[in-house]
Design a protein that fits this description.
CATH class of the largest domain: Mainly Alpha
Helix content: 40-55%
Strand order of the largest sheet: 1-3-2
Shape: elongated
CATH topology of the largest domain: Arc Repressor Mutant, subunit A
Order of helices and strands: HHEHHEEHHEHHEHHHHH
Structural class: mainly alpha
Low-confidence stretches: 96-114, 237-246
Largest sheet: 3 strands, antiparallel
Strand content: 5-15%
CATH superfamily of the largest domain: Winged helix-like DNA-binding domain superfamily/Winged helix DNA-binding domain
Radius of gyration: 30 Å
Distance between the termini: 56 Å
Length: 304
């Protein structure tokens, strides 16, 4: 609990009693520095007696007003975790020391007591000022952990979330999505889902630590939404070993066969389908109507 954050939130005007209640819960949950907290929406709803939807709306209102900043988190399986919330309240001084309180037991140090009875944290701060810092331990903790004397302990760097990388989702990510849809029998356009994923995160300034994990979650959710719309999968296809190994090639050939795309990177992929020296597997070239001699005209190409 942070008294700095609670004091800053108490004097703040949010324009809504419900939003103020949510803000007070966040301030109460903040760490000792008064900046960050992580709390589930359900916990806030229980403490404020608001509905889950109302809590989500008020969190959005507080974020829009600039009182908080949220970072979405997912675990290794792509499941949603409570957001990391940073309080950005006006007048909040982070890391400010607590105001000293007058404690009668602390005065024992001034009376010459050899061993004061008080063991509270506040009393220890005062006793350090009066009696001096305690002696250093006999055994160096760094040596206990196998570090040479004078060697600083390695710090644990925290990986920060970043904006979506240029060109992501790339061809390999789209190929994975297409193979995932096919393996489950769903006729869903992987390239279209990749474009929706990128546009959504560009417009919302989405930030993640692992973008491939976020994309996998999006693809899984696409199947969930299709089921809610009443759609049903077709018969699952059985992938051949060649398709499993060279699936990125299938995505590249399929994209080149789409009249609305017409993209081929000769620098990375070599000659285009239908031209001499094309390195794409023959099975994929035949699947999308490309012969070994001539390039099929655009008017006769079909989408994957």
């Amino acid at each position: 609990m942070s008294w700095q954050a609670s004091r800053a939130a108490r004097d703040l005007k949010t324009g809504s009693p419900a939003a103020k209640s949510v803000l007070m819960i966040l301030a109460e949950q903040a760490d000792a520095d008064g900046a960050a907290c992580s709390i589930a929406v359900e916990t806030i709803a229980n403490r404020t007696e608001l509905s889950r939807r109302a809590v989500i709306e008020h969190l959005g209102t507080l974020e829009t007003a600039g009182f908080i900043r949220r970072e979405r988190r997912v675990n290794a399986f792509g499941h949603r975790l409570p957001d990391d919330i940073t309080l950005t309240l006006p007048g909040l001084v982070l890391g400010a020391p607590s105001a000293p309180r007058d404690n009668a037991k602390v005065q024992e140090a001034h009376l010459g007591t050899a061993k004061p009875r008080c063991t509270s944290r506040t009393a220890k701060v005062h006793l350090t000022d009066v009696l001096g810092a305690p002696p250093a331990p006999h055994i160096d903790k760094g040596l206990e952990e196998g570090l040479e004397e004078g060697t600083p302990k390695p710090s644990k760097a925290k990986t920060r979330a970043t904006a979506i990388p240029n060109g992501f989702p790339n061809d390999d990510a789209v190929a994975w999505a297409a193979n995932h849809f096919r393996s489950l029998g769903w006729d869903i356009d992987a390239r279209r889902e990749a474009d929706k994923f990128r546009n959504r995160n560009l417009s919302k300034d989405g930030r993640y630590v692992d973008w491939m994990a976020a994309f996998r979650t999006w693809i899984m959710n696409a199947i969930t939404f299709a089921e809610k719309d009443g759609r049903r999968p077709t018969a699952p296809r059985t992938a051949t070993p060649e398709a499993s190994i060279a699936d990125p090639w299938r995505a590249r050939v399929a994209a080149f066969a789409d009249p609305t795309n017409r993209f081929w990177n000769p620098t990375d992929y070599g000659p285009a389908p239908g031209k001499p020296g094309c390195e794409a597997p023959a099975a994929f070239l035949a699947e999308f109507g490309f012969g070994s001699g001539n390039v099929v005209p655009m008017s006769k190409r079909g989408a994957a």
